[in-house]
Structures are given as structure tokens and as C-alpha cells.
Amino acid sequence: MHIKLFKSTFLGFLFILFTSLQLIQCAVLGIDFGQEYTKGSLVAPGAPFEVIMTSDSKRKDLSGITFKKAPGSGSGTFERIYGNSAAAVIQRFPATSPFYLKPLLGQSLDSPAAKWYSEQFPAVKLVPSNNNRSTIAIQIFDDIYSVEEIVAMSFSEIKGRASKVLTQALSGSSGYLKDTALSVPPYYSIQQRKALQDAVEIADLRLISLVNDGAAVAANFAASRQFENDKKEHHIIYDIGAGSTTATLVEIYQADLVPEGSPFPRSHTVIDVIGVGYDTELGGHVLTQSVRNILIDKFLEANPKVKRNDLLNDHRALARFWREAERVKFVLSANSETQSSIESAYNDISLKTHVSRVEFEDANRHLFDKVPAPILDALNNPLNNSTEAFDFSKVSSIILTGGSTRIPIVQQELLSLINARDPTEQVTLAKNVNADEAAVLGTALRGVGISKIFRSKDMAVIDRAIWDYSAEIDGEVATIFPRGTPLDSKFVLPFDSSKDDFKLVLYENGKEFVRHNINGVQSAIKRLLNDPHRECISNVSVEAEFHLSNSRIVELLGTYAKCESIEKVVSTESSQQSSTSDSADVESSSETDNASSGTTSSATTASVSPTAKPPKVVKKSVSMTNSFDGPRPMGSASKQSALSRLRALDRLDADRLSREEARNTFESRLYRVRELLESEESAQQKLAEFGEWFDYDSEKASIKVLQEKLAELNALADSYNKETTVQQIELPKETGSVVEPTMAGPEIILEPPVVQEQQPFENEKLADVYQGIKEVAEMLDQLGIDIPNREAVAQILGGSTVPDSTSNLKGIAELLRSKLQAANLDGSEPADSGDVESRLNDLRHMIKKAADIIKTESSATPSVSISTSPSPKNPQHDDL
């Protein structure tokens, strides 16, 4: 009876496990990585579609990290403080606080972006990256970290917070999260986009796509609205961020489209990007820089003995002035004047002054005059191959997004543009999206739409290339993706098949970004012509295939020699009798009109069978190598090394946090025992020793030592028959563990907590499987069946491989049921110990099979209803 109970429970567990994991695999993380602030959002069945809160319960986080020497640690050990939590310490540690790194991605050390960054944040030491990639790295104490690695740390931290949200939403499930979509300015080059792509991979995330900011905001705007079938609406998404200003002209309408894989049309909301304008010199940080200059001028005027160069060379002072300038700029968005004060701004001299909005506007008049320019560029240079400018009066609204659109003079400049260009006053200045969060929510929606991980609102977004992409072959240039080409397009470029080698150079907007050396064309042609199984029936051609991805990255998919060919079949006299039975393997070709069904040739020489299969195109690859003239992306080995280093830092952070929690536990217990033994004079000396040890030695103590000390402290209280509560301190995983501590989810172990020499799994999808293993082990214990080494069962999971193909869940359930029966777990008692071991082996194989299934990406795409109602109004919006 117990065996039957075990059998039914185990199969029920597998069914629930596989069903729930289909939902867990559907989560999409949206990231809006801004120059000043970073936001994250999560879309998953059963989880609220909302912005992910930061560690300090805010809706956005400063973009950066402070590296700080860990208290009591040796050299080379530091802790990382992320985002808002680091705001208070940036001015104390400016050299190890690399914030606002977005403009440095995909740039060389001699670029204008690097020069500007060094001028504004001179404490941060920029150095060349490793492996001669012509990109930028940052020196942190004695180590060098590429910009991509530091950005990846922020992405990993967001991933950890999102995993906790997912775990809570799915009632304690593993919170596994892998897929992400990332917003990006529309003017970003391929080098910058690839740098972001590398950062995502280093964070151990899988990039669905980069999403242009304007398209993301448009998706968020359209998601909660209905549009008429016969009416096209036109809106301009106007975004002033910290680093730039962009204007995206979109056309939105309703249309019946046939989804991929469906024979029937469905009504879709269509968003067509038909114009883009931008200004990389107008942004929030340039305005902050101007306010800082105003504050510095006022400080120097009040303190004439202070020399400007001395102040500008004081990195901590500059950090203090920058932080105050950010605050002043924000306050002036709602007030005409504000008081400014910086305690000990420089050399213990404080700043107390006031700044007016008029001063701010006068200092930036040259910038505010450029506010309308991106809109005019989007209107005058449409992406739909029209030679005429788009009629401004057809625009329904200018939708404001980005923090700096709150500045009153920006809105005044836009209203002036509307009044000058639209006398009918039909164009409105709209504030109908959340200026801070529309991009991150829209990015997550686009991630769902592109990946089709699950169904959401039917929406088709047509984003386009804003530049020409061309290819040069031996001096001849051909445009492969003209300006305005929809993303996710392919192009085939033919080569001269008489040549053996080519030099292929790819250009973006006239600037080279990669060079391909193609070799061995004639060798590929020979392999094609000498194929023993197929024969070409058309001329051999050589061509290169290119892809313009949804991330707007142009890549050479491959270079091929190809022809249309048919299968060669050998016919002999001896095969006459078997030809009929083998005919199922040889399909009739429609090209062979004179073929006679059921007849064979008596010739003994090889020939093309008259019953050959229909022709098909066969390709043979041509080898090629890449080279880069400027910044180049990270190689796979470099990314793997960076990922390993990031995991090691995560483990150190987890260990440090565990030690801090252990110290706090010991400290609180020490205070309690002191209260309990206050009247016991004989215990005071021992308590003083505990206190002295805590003050001077506990910071460097391991968790094991802290646990021993806690046990001694509790034993002291017990010896006086006083109240005691033994608080067990969980030992952290050793540094060799491959588990990522930033990932949330229940830790399932097979034995009581101990320091494990090897963590048996890496993929957090397997957390539920571990729970199942634990339950199975308990059932076996009840049946009197012993597992000599339960960790070995778990290690089978960690070593399992990912199948190439997806699996049918129903078929897998039947397979497991048959294996369960084959293992003789159907109610009969085990005959001997060998039979028991055989059953356990079968059980291990079953668990391994379950792990393989879980690691396999399911082809099923469950539907989920996403609430796209506007987010609660941010109090900051009242300033508008």
C-alpha cells in the first residue's frame, strides 16, 4: 500500500512540476538602462505587471555602483553598494564610484564621450580594456573592470530583485528568470548595441531584443488604448533623458493581420515608426553640469582665496557639488527659486547661496533653443521613403517622457513650436504616460511580443533603420539595408563565383564597423559539385546572407556556395526486387516527366534515379574571419571569464551579508544575556570577554566561529537556568559554489544544513526538482529503502545535458510511468538488496530525465492577460 501511495504521489508531483515550470519559464524582465536612472519591470503569468521596487523601496535606481573596502577585510576584498543606496557614499569614495557609465559603452578611450566623462567625474580612472578591444575599462582598487562588466553587475542586481518578486508572486516557486528586453536610444551605433548585448550575457541573462526608447514608450501608450480600424493616429514621443533628446514619430492604427502560425486573421494594434530625430548634446546631465558651474562660481565669489583649479582638482568636492546641482535642478522645475547649501563643500568651507530659475534658464539658453530640433528632424526626414516632410498638423499629440521634460522652459519651447506650426491648435502637449516608467513597461511588452513567450495584447510594432547599411566587396559598395528598412529583415548579396577570396567591409551610416575576410570559395564549390549523394541541376552561385535584427544589429549570417540539386540514387540489376519496398525512401520528382512508376533499370552503373526526390537548394559554407578597426565586442572566452568573476563577487557579497547577519544575531543575543545575568556577579567577567571579542575580533570571524561563540553564550545563560533561545546561524555556501546568491528562490537540500563542498546544481529551474527529491527520499525512508548517497542523486541533475529538441509532456509522463513500472515499484516487496539498488538506479534515471525536461525550452506558449492600465500617478508629476 505504501509503495502504491509513493507511486501515485511521485507521478502527481511530476505532473504538477512540469505544468508549473511552463509558467515559470514565461517570465520576461524589462530593463530601462538610463544614463542617470535604471528601472526594471516584470511580466509573467500570475505576477503583477509593475515596476520592480529597489532595495530602498523606490521605483528607480541610480545607474551605478560604489565599490567600498569591506570592514575588517584583507586587501582586494570589497563590497558593492548599488544605486540609491550608494548616493550617500559617492562623495566619500568618488574614485571607486563609477556611475552614469552609459555613454562609455562601445566607445574608445580617445572618444568625445570618454573625454566628457573624465572632465565631469575626474576621480574615476578610465583605462584601456583588456585584449586590445579598443574599449574602456575602469580601475577599481588594484583590479580592472570593463564598462560592460560593471553594467552587468547592475543588471544582475535587478535580476535578483525581479526573481524575488517572481518567487513571491508564484507562492514560493524558484523565481527562475532568464529572458530580458533592454531599452536603447535609437541613435546608438552597432558597437554600443553590442556592448549592451555583452553586458546582458555577462549578467547571465538571455537577450530577447534591444528596444528603441521611442518604440517602447509607444507600445506602453498603445497597450491600454483602443484605436479605430479606418483612422490612423500620429503621435510624437518626445524624450529628454539624462544623456540626450529624441523625438519618435509613430503612426498607430488598428488592422486585421494573420499571426505567424495561424491561418486566421486577428485584429492588431499596429505601431509604425515613421520618423526619428535626436540631439546627443541636449540632456539632463548637461543641464546639471551648468547648475554645478553656477554653484562653483558662487562659491568662488564668496571665497576669493580659493583657487578654481584647486577646487576642480578636488574630486570629493566635485562630487558634492554635482549631487547638490542635481537637487537644485529638480527643485527649479517646480519653483522659481531655491536655496542651496553644501556643508564642508571644500576645505571645511561650506556653501550657502540661492539659485533662481532665471539664472538657470539664462545659463542654458543656447541649449533650450535646440528643444524643437529633434521634432523637426523627425518630421522633415521620414523613414517611409517619402521625399516630402510629414505634415505637422496631422500629429495628434506630443507625448512627453523623460525626467527633463518637466522643466518649464522645455514645455514652453514645445508650446511655441505647436503655435507656430499648427495654427488650428489640434496638436496637444500630452502628459498621458508616466514620464519615468513608460519606457521600462513598454520594453517588457516588446520583449513579450518579439519572443512570443506567451500571448498578450495583439500588437505589431514596425521599427525601422534610421541609417543606411552598406557592404563593400573589393572596392564596390552596395546598400544592403536602406534607411527606413523594417527591422528583422534579411538580404542576400551575390558574389563573383570565379574568385576564391573576398574582402567584405560593412558600414553603418558610412562608418566601417566590421571587416570580413572570406576565403576558400572554390573549395566550397568543389565540395558542392563533388557531393557523392547529390547532383547540381542549376548553376552554382556564391552569396552572402545578412540580417538586420530587431536589436538593429547587422550581422553576416554566412557566406555560401549553393545550387539546386537532386539526390543521386544507385540502381543495379540485383536491386530490382527490392526497389518497390524501398520506394518509400525515394520521392517522385515532378521534374522527371518520363519516369515510369514501378520500373527499374538493369544497368549496373550509378545513375540518377528516375524516382529521385524533388530538387532542393544545397549550401556549402565558405570560411571567413573578422577584424575590427575600432571598438570590438567581447569574445566568448572573455564573456565567460567575466561571468565567472561576477559570480565570484556575488558569492563574496552573499558571504559578507551572512556574516553581518550572524554578527547582528550574536550582538542582539549578547545584549539579552547581559540583561538576564545583570545580577550575577560571577558571570560579569565572562560577559566582558564576550563583549571585548565582539568589539575587536568579530568583524573578521567566520560564521563557524560566530556560531561557536553564540553556543558558548547560550551555554552561559543555561548554566544560570536563565531564559535562552538558541539561534542557529545558517552557514553560507562555500566560495566554490556555482549557485548565484543574487537569485531568489528556496534552497532545497537533502540533508541538514552543512557547508557543502560541491553545490550540485546551477540552474535555478531545478529548485522544485530538489523539493521532489527530498520528498521521494522521505518516502523511501518510510519504506525502509536506504539511499547510500543522496547527494549523488542530486549531482545527476547538475550533470545532465540539455536536449536539442523539445519534448511532449504527455509522452514524457507515459515514459516515466513505464519506467516506474519497469522499476517494479508497483506494490511488490523488494526481493533482495540488489533489487533495491536496481530500483534506486531507475529512480535516479527518472529524476535525471525530469531535469532534462525542465532544462528544455517548451514549445508551448501559455496565454496570460496583462493589465496595461496606467501606473499610479507619480507625485513628482504634480510639478507639471
UniProtKB/TrEMBL annotation:
Protein localization: Endoplasmic reticulum lumen
Example of a GO biological process term: endoplasmic reticulum unfolded protein response
Main subcellular location of this protein, as a coarse class: endoplasmic reticulum
Family annotation (Gene3D superfamilies): 3.30.30.30, 3.30.420.40, Actin, Chain A, domain 4 (3.90.640.10)
InterPro entries in the cross-refs: ATPase_NBD (IPR043129), Heat_shock_70_CS (IPR018181), Hsp_70_fam (IPR013126)
Composition bias type Low complexity, residue spans: 571-583, 591-623, 856-871
Coiled coil: 696-723
Domain of life of the source: Eukaryota
UniProt signal peptide: 1-26
Disordered, as annotated region: 571-642, 854-880
Pfam families according to UniProt: HSP70
Entry GO MF terms: ATP binding; ATP-dependent protein folding chaperone
GO terms under cellular component: endoplasmic reticulum chaperone complex; endoplasmic reticulum lumen
Keywords: ATP-binding, Chaperone, Coiled coil, Nucleotide-binding, Signal
Record bears the keyword Signal: yes
PANTHER family recorded: HSC70CB, ISOFORM G-RELATED, HYPOXIA UP-REGULATED PROTEIN 1
Name of this protein: Hsp70 family chaperone LHS1
Gene that this polypeptide is encoded by: LHS1
